[in-house]
User: Which sequence fits this backbone?
């Protein structure tokens, strides 16, 4: 029986100048969370204040992943931005609910819905 996990794959696109859509695939845990953190930090460094994380292909996330999401949330809020989660896999959604992260960081069913909400928050500021 193999204990090997799916390697983390991260793809970043920019649907708008200030928005990064980050599609994450694979296990988000202590071994891979730093890689995601580097990608998110790179986006904020390039003036993308709004980060949308597609977690639909993340079958498992531990506290390391939660910490990266919360850190990104805090850092984007300091620069007038936001973090949104897109379609978290059921096991990941359960962790987000149990830890209370889902009360702080909003989740959306689709990237289109998340982009619409980012637009709403920009118009209100």
Assistant:
């Amino acid at each position: 029986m193999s204990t090997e996990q799916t390697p983390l794959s991260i793809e970043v696109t920019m649907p708008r100048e200030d928005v990064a859509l980050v599609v994450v695939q694979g296990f988000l845990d202590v071994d891979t969370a730093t890689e995601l953190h580097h990608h998110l930090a790179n986006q904020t460094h390039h003036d993308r204040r709004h980060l949308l994380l597609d977690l639909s292909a993340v079958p498992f996330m531990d506290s390391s992943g939660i910490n990266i999401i919360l850190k990104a949330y805090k850092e984007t809020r300091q620069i007038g931005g936001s973090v949104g989660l897109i379609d978290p896999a059921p096991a990941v959604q359960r962790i987000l609910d149990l830890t209370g992260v889902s009360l702080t960081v909003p989740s959306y069913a689709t990237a289109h819905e998340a982009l619409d909400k980012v637009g709403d928050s920009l118009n209100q500021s």
